[in-house]
Automatic annotation (TrEMBL):
<dbReference type="InterPro" id="IPR015341">
    <property type="entry name" value="Glyco_hydro_38_cen"/>
</dbReference>
<comment type="function">
    <text>Liberates mannose from p-nitrophenyl-alpha-D-mannoside in vitro.</text>
</comment>
<keyword id="KW-1015">Disulfide bond</keyword>
<keyword id="KW-0378">Hydrolase</keyword>
<dbReference type="Pfam" id="PF17677">
    <property type="entry name" value="Glyco_hydro38C2"/>
</dbReference>
<dbReference type="InterPro" id="IPR027291">
    <property type="entry name" value="Glyco_hydro_38_N_sf"/>
</dbReference>
<dbReference type="InterPro" id="IPR037094">
    <property type="entry name" value="Glyco_hydro_38_cen_sf"/>
</dbReference>
<dbReference type="InterPro" id="IPR013780">
    <property type="entry name" value="Glyco_hydro_b"/>
</dbReference>
<dbReference type="GO" id="GO:0046872">
    <property type="term" value="F:metal ion binding"/>
</dbReference>
<comment type="similarity">
    <text>Belongs to the glycosyl hydrolase 38 family.</text>
</comment>
<dbReference type="InterPro" id="IPR050843">
    <property type="entry name" value="Glycosyl_Hydrlase_38"/>
</dbReference>
<dbReference type="InterPro" id="IPR041147">
    <property type="entry name" value="GH38_C"/>
</dbReference>
<dbReference type="Pfam" id="PF09261">
    <property type="entry name" value="Alpha-mann_mid"/>
</dbReference>
<dbReference type="Pfam" id="PF21260">
    <property type="entry name" value="Laman-like_dom"/>
</dbReference>
<dbReference type="InterPro" id="IPR011682">
    <property type="entry name" value="Glyco_hydro_38_C"/>
</dbReference>
<keyword id="KW-0326">Glycosidase</keyword>
<dbReference type="InterPro" id="IPR011330">
    <property type="entry name" value="Glyco_hydro/deAcase_b/a-brl"/>
</dbReference>
Length: 1014
C-alpha cells in the first residue's frame, strides 16, 4: 500500500502548480430588481424529539438511530458565520438553542449577540418547539411560543418576525391568525399541504396567499403565507452535508472534475422552474433539512461558490437571504395576493396517504398533555395568589415539559416509543413540582386570614392524579374518630361554578358537610370490577406497588365554588343523626329482554332499548332519536400495487367492521339522587358508562377501550358513532386547535375539486374542543376530553376515533409500529384507553353556549386537594372559602382568563379571551368588557400595558410595524368592518373584547392590603 500511495503522490505532484492562490468569493449580492432573485435561506430543521429524545438530539448520543447532534450545528455555525459577514442563518427551535446558550462562555454569547443584531443569525418562529397544528390546544401553543419569545426578547432584545412551520402535517387557522398575526409575524411559511391542493396552486401560482383564517377577526389578523413548492429541503442536487452526494462546485482548474459551468446551469434551471410557479421575481430556496449543518462549512463553502459563479454568469441573481429579507422583497413589489380562508386540513401527500391517523395516535399521551395543560393554568393562578418566591417549588419545569410536548412529533404520537416515554417522564417531573406548589399555595391561602399573612404553612395537601382509575390514597383512608377528611375544591374559571365531585371511598359510613357545617346531599355508586382491574393493573405498572385495599364506592356530591377560588367540604365518619349518602339502586337487565331502560334525574332523560342502545334523548323541548355504536377499521397492510400501510401518521383503513355487544352480557343500571348511570360491557375489551347528573343537561359517555386484540394479525382503529336525525346535508363543524369552528363538507374542499380516494380517512379532521352539526331546527354537539380525530361520514352521524393499535410502520420515518403496551413485571399487554366525551342537542342558535362554556369546564376541571384534620378544627381556624377576584364580581359569560401568572420580575401576565365567534350566539357574540380593577382585589394597578399575544412587545409597537398586504379582487370591499376592543383607559381600566379577541397585558401591581380585606 505504501508504495502505491507514494506513486499517487508523485503523480499528483506533476499536475499541482507550484503555488496555490487564495480565492475570494463575492457573496455580497443583494436584491437585483431586474433579475430573478434566488433567496438562499440556510436552515436546519431540528425536531425537539422524534427518533431520539430532545436531549439525545442535543448532545448527539444514540447515533445508531440517527446521526444527529444539534450541539455540532450551533458550535460550527458561529465560526462559519464569522468567516463571511454576508452568510446568513436562521435558527428556530428554542428548546435546543437555550440548551446550547446555557453552555456558552460570555465571549461566545457576546459574539452571538452581535450576529443576531447584524441580522446574520436570525431567530425565527421562536417557540420552544415547532408545535404541531392539529393535536395541540391553542392555549398550549400560546404558552410555548411565549416561553421562547420572551427568552429571545430578554437575551437579545429582538422579536421574531417570521412564522416557520415547515414540517407540521397540515396547518390550522389558529396558527395563521393567532400564533402568526397576533404575535406580530410578517409572514408564515410551511411545507406540507395536500398534494391535490399543491398541484392546483402551482398551476395558478397561488402557493403564496393572504390567509384570513378567522371569520371574526378577518383582515385585522391576516398573514402573508407561503407554502413551499415541494418540501423544506433544497432543490434536488443542492444538498451539501458532509456525506451528501450532490455534486460540489469544483472550481479549482488545477484539480480534476472542474464543473463550474454545469453547476451554474443546474442552478439556473432549478431557479427558472421554480419561478414558473411563483409570482414576482423572488423565489426562496430552503437550504437545509433535518439536523443539517453539523459541519456548517460544507454548506456555506458551496453556497459561497454558487453565489459567486451564478452572479458572474448573470442570468439570475443569487443571494444569501432569510425569510425576513424574502418577505420584505415580496412586500416591496406591492402586488395583490390571492385570498385564503379556512385551513389546510386534512393533509395527504398522495392518493392513499391521509395524515389523519395521528389525530388519534397515542391517545393516552394526548390526554396526559391536555390534563397537564389545564393543571398548569390553575397552578399559575395559585402561584400568583400566594406570591412567587425564588425558593421552593414552581411551575417552570412543567412549563418546559408542556412546551416541548407540543412538538410535531410529540403530542402528535408520531415519535418512537422511548421518546414518547421521555415526554411523559418530563411531564411527570414537572407535574410533581407543580403539585407541590399547588399544595403549598392552597395551604397558604387556607391559613391566611385578614390579619395574618401566610408564613410557613403547615397544612399538608394531597392530590390525586390517578383519580381516573379510582386511585386516590387520601380519600381511601378509613377515618378515625375525631378526624375529618377536608376537601378543598379550586375553580380556575372566572365564573361561579356548580359541579359534581366524585371520589373513591372505602365505606358507606360517612357524611359530607360544607364549609359552614351544613349537610350536603351525596350518593354512593359501587365501583365496578372494570375499574378495580384498571386500578390494580396500572398502579402496579406505573407506581410499582400494589394499590392496597380496594375502595368500594364512588362518593358523589354537588359542590358550589366561587370564581377563581375555592370552597371547602369535609367528609367524616357518619354519626347518629348526620345525613348519610344515599346508596344507588343498582339492577341488571338482560340484553334482549323486552324492556326499556330510562335514566336521568334532572331535566334530561335518556331511554335505552334492551339491546343497550340509546334510543331517545328527552328534554323539556323535544324528544330526539339517537343511537350510539362502536366499530373498528382494519389497518391496511398495503398491497403490492399500493403499498401504503396504516400507521402512526397515516390512517389507511382496509374495511370497517361493526362491534356488536355480546348478547349474553347484562346491562347494569345505577339510579341515585344525583347521578344515574348505565354500564355496558360492549365486548371483552370495550366497557362503557353512560352518565347523567342532575346539574347538567348533557350526556357523558365514559369509555374504557383496550387492550385492542391483535392475535388475528390485524391492526385495529376503534371508532364510536353517534347517529341522530339531524339533516346535516354533508356538513359538520370542527374546531381549529380548540378555538374557532370551521365548516367541513363531506367529500369536498373549498379550494379545489377534490378527487376522493379515501372516503373515511380523507374526511377526518382534528378535534380538540368538539364537533357539531345542525339543521333548520337543532344542533347536535359532541365535546371531547383530548385531541382526537373525527368526522361525519353520513348525514346525521358523527364519528370519533378513540384508539389505534397497528402492527406495521407507515413509512414516514418513525420506523416503528404504533403498538403501545403497558407492562407489569415484563409481561406486557396492549394499552387501555379510558376517557370521556359529552353530547347534547340544542335548539338552532343555542349550541354555542354549551360548547363554549362547558368546553371550558372540560379544559379546566375542578382541582381537588385533600387534608386530614381534627374535627371542626378546620372550620374554626382556616379560611374555608376564597375568591381571587372581587367577591361582587364575575367575569362575563363570554370571557375566560387564559393566563394569570406572576412573572419573575413581579409583574403579572394576564390574558383575557372572548370565547365566541361572530355569529355564534345572538346574545354572547357581542363586544364585552372586563373590569381589570375587580380582578385584583386588595391591590392597585400601577400600570397595565397591552402586549402582543406572546408578550414580547407592546401591542402598539407591533401594530405600527405591521405590513399591510393587498388582497386580490375586491375582498376588502366585501368584508364587513372587523370589530376589535378599543384602547384601555388608564384610569377606568376596562378591557373591551370583541368576538374571538384575545388581549394580553403586563400589569404592574401595588399591594394595598391583605388579600382578604377586599
Ligand atoms: Zn419535523
Amino acid at each position: 500500500m505504501a508504495i502505491e500511495v507514494l506513486v499517487l503522490l508523485l503523480a499528483l505532484a506533476g499536475v499541482l502548480p507550484a503555488e496555490s492562490k487564495f480565492m475570494v468569493y463575492n457573496t455580497s449580492a443583494g436584491i437585483d430588481p431586474n433579475k430573478l432573485n434566488v433567496h438562499l435561506v440556510p436552515h436546519t430543521h431540528d425536531d425537539v424529539g422524534w427518533l431520539k429524545t430532545v436531549d439525545q438530539y442535543y448532545v448527539g448520543s444514540n447515533n445508531s438511530i440517527q446521526g444527529a447532534c444539534v450541539q455540532n450545528v450551533l458550535d460550527s455555525l458561529v465560526p462559519a458565520l464569522l468567516a463571511d459577514k454576508n452568510r446568513k442563518f436562521i435558527y428556530v427551535e428554542q428548546a435546543f438553542f437555550q440548551r446550547w446558550w446555557r453552555d456558552q462562555s460570555e465571549t461566545v454569547q457576546s459574539i452571538v449577540k452581535q450576529l443576531v443584531h447584524s441580522g446574520q443569525l436570525e431567530l425565527i418562529n421562536g417557540g420552544m418547539c415547532m408545535h404541531d397544528e392539529a393535536a395541540p390546544h391553542y392555549i398550549d401553543m400560546i404558552d410555548q411560543t411565549t416561553l421562547g419569545h420572551r427568552f429571545i426578547k430578554e437575551e437579545f432584545g429582538v422579536t421574531p418576525r417570521i412564522g416557520w412551520q415547515i414540517d407540521p402535517f397540515g396547518h390550522s387557522a389558529v396558527q395563521a391568525y393567532l400564533l402568526s398575526a397576533e404575535v406580530g409575524f410578517d409572514s408564515l411559511f410551511f411545507g406540507r399541504i395536500d398534494y391535490q391542493d399543491r398541484a392546483k396552486r402551482k398551476n395558478e401560482k397561488s402557493l403564496e396567499v393572504i390567509w384570513q383564517a378567522s371569520k371574526s377577526l378577518g383582515s385585522s389578523a391576516q398573514i402573508f403565507a407561503g407554502a413551499f413548492p415541494e418540501n423544506y429541503e433544497p432543490p434536488k442536487g443542492f444538498y451539501f452535508e458532509v456525506n451528501d452526494n450532490s455534486p460540489i462546485v469544483q472550481d479549482d482548474i488545477n484539480l480534476f472534475d472542474y464543473n463550474v459551468q454545469e453547476r451554474v446551469n443546474d442552478f439556473v434551471a432549478a431557479a427558472v422552474a421554480q419561478a414558473n410557479i411563483t409570482r414576482t421575481n423572488h423565489i426562496m430556496w430552503t437550504m437545509g433539512t433535518d439536523f443539517k449543518y453539523q459541519y456548517a462549512y460544507t454548506w456555506f463553502r458551496q453556497m459561497d461558490k454558487l453565489i459567486h459563479y451564478v452572479n458572474q454568469d448573470g442570468r439570475v441573481n443569487a443571494l444569501y437571504s432569510t425569510p425576513s429579507i424574502y418577505t420584505d422583497a415580496k412586500y416591496a413589489t406591492n402586488r395583490a395576493w390571492p385570498l385564503k380562508t379556512g385551513d389546510y386540513f386534512p393533509y395527504a401527500d398522495r392518493a392513499n396517504a391521509y395524515w389523519t391517523g395521528y389525530f388519534t395516535s397515542r391517545p393516552a399521551l394526548k390526554r396526559y398533555v391536555r390534563i397537564m395543560s389545564g393543571y398548569y393554568l390553575a397552578a399559575r393562578q395559585l402561584e400568583f395568589f400566594k406570591g412567587k418566591t425564588t425558593s421552593g417549588p414552581n411551575t417552570d419545569s412543567l412549563a418546559d415539559a408542556l412546551a416541548i410536548a407540543q412538538h410535531h412529533d410529540a403530542v402528535t404520537g408520531t415519535e418512537k416509543q422511548h421518546v414518547a416515554n421521555d415526554y411523559a417522564k418530563r411531564l411527570a417531573i414537572g407535574y410533581t413540582e407543580a403539585e407541590a406548589l399547588v399544595a403549598s399555595s392552597l395551604a397558604c391561602l387556607v391559613e391566611s386570614t385578614a390579619n395574618k399573612e401566610c408564613g410557613n404553612p403547615t397544612t399538608k395537601f394531597q392530590q390525586c392524579p390517578l383519580m381516573n382509575i379510582s386511585y386516590c390514597p387520601p380519600s381511601e383512608t378509613v377515618l378515625s374518630n375525631g378526624k375529618d377528611l377536608v376537601l378543598v375544591v379550586y375553580n380556575p374559571l372566572g365564573w361561579k361554578r356548580e359541579d359534581i365531585v366524585q371520589i373513591p371511598v372505602m365505606t358507606d359510613d360517612i357524611s359530607v358537610h360544607d364549609s359552614e357545617g351544613k349537610d350536603v346531599e351525596s350518593q354512593l355508586i359501587p365501583i365496578t370490577e372494570a375499574y378495580h382491574k384498571l386500578r390494580s393493573y396500572h398502579v402496579k405498572a406505573y407506581l410499582g406497588r400494589n394499590a392496597g385495599g380496594t375502595p368500594k364506592y364512588w362518593l358523589v356530591f354537588p359542590v358550589s365554588v366561587p370564581a377563581l377560588g375555592f370552597s371547602t367540604y369535609s367528609i367524616s365518619r357518619a354519626q347518629g343523626t348526620g345525613a348519610r349518602p344515599t346508596k344507588s339502586s343498582v339492577y341488571t337487565v338482560q340484553r334482549g329482554e323486552n324492556s326499556v331502560v330510562n335514566i336521568g334525574q334532572g331535566n334530561l332523560k335518556v331511554a335505552f332499548s334492551a339491546e343497550g342502545k340509546i334510543t331517545h334523548y328527552i328534554n323539556k323541548w323535544r324528544t330526539e332519536s339517537v343511537e350510539q355504536s362502536y366499530s373498528f377499521y382494519a389497518g391496511s397492510n398495503g398491497t403490492e400495487k399500493e403499498p401504503q400501510k396504516s400507521g402512526a401518521y397515516i390512517f389507511r383503513p382496509n374495511g370497517s367492521f361493526p362491534i356488536s355487544p355480546a348478547k349474553q352480557t347484562p346491562l347494569t343500571v345505577v339510579h341515585g339522587s344525583i347521578v344515574d348511570e348505565l354500564h355496558e360491557q360492549i365486548n371483552s375489551w370495550i366497557y362503557q358508562v353512560t352518565r347523567l347528573n342532575k346539574l347538567k343537561e348533557h350526556i357523558e359517555v365514559e369509555f374504557i377501550v383496550g387492550p385492542i386484540p391483535i392475535d388475528d394479525g390485524i391492526g385495529k382503529e376503534v371508532a364510536t358513532q353517534i347517529s341522530t336525525t339531524v339533516k346535516s346535508k354533508k356538513t359538520f363543524y370542527t374546531d381549529s386547535s380548540g378555538r374557532d369552528f370551521i365548516e367541513r363538507i363531506r367529500d369536498y374542499r373549498t379550494d379545489w375539486n377534490l378527487e376522493v380516494n379515501q372516503p373515511a380517512a380523507g374526511n377526518y379532521y382534528p378535534i380538540n374542543l368538539g364537533i357539531f352539526m345542525k339543521d333548520e331546527e337543532k344542533e347536535f354537539s359532541i365535546l371531547v376530553d383530548r385531541s382526537v380525530g373525527g368526522s361525519s361520514l353520513s348525514d346525521g352521524q358523527i364519528e370519533l376515533m378513540l384508539h389505534r393499535r397497528l402492527l406495521l410502520d407507515d413509512s414516514r420515518g418513525v420506523a416503528e409500529a404504533l403498538n403501545e403496551t403497558v407492562c407489569v413485571e415484563n409481561k406486557c399487554t396492549g394499552l387501555i384507553i379510558q376517557g370521556k366525551y359529552y353530547f347534547r342537542f340544542d335548539q338552532l342558535g343555542e349550541g354555542a353556549r354549551w360548547r363554549r362554556s362547558y368546553g371550558q369546564e372540560i379544559y379546566s376541571p375542578l382541582l381537588l386537594a385533600f387534608a386530614e384534620e381534627d374535627k371542626n378544627h378546620w372550620r374554626n381556624s382556616r379560611t374555608t372559602s376564597f375568591s381571587g377576584i372581587d367577591s361582587s364580581y364575575t367575569l362575563p359569560e363570554n370571557v375566560v382568563i387564559l393566563t394569570l401568572q406572576e412573572l419573575d420580575d413581579g409583574n403579572v401576565l394576564l390574558r383575557l379571551a372572548h370565547l365566541y365567534e361572530v355569529g355564534d350566539h345572538k346574545e354572547l357574540s357581542v363586544m364585552t368588557s372586563v373590569e381589570l380593577k375587580k380582578l385584583f382585589p386588595g391591590k392597585k394597578i400601577g400600570k397595565a400595558t397591552e402586549m402582543s399575544l406572546s408578550a414580547n412587545q407592546e401591542r402598539a409597537e407591533m401594530e405600527s410595524k405591521r405590513l399591510v398586504w393587498k388582497v386580490e379582487g375586491s375582498a376588502e370591499e366585501k368584508e364587513t368592518k372587523v370589530s376589535r376592543g378599543g384602547p384601555v383607559d388608564p384610569v377606568k381600566l376596562e378591557v373591551e373584547l370583541a368576538p374571538m379577541e384575545i388581549r394580553t397585558f403586563i400589569i404592574e401591581l401595588v399591594q394595598l392590603n391583605n388579600l382578604f380585606d377586599a
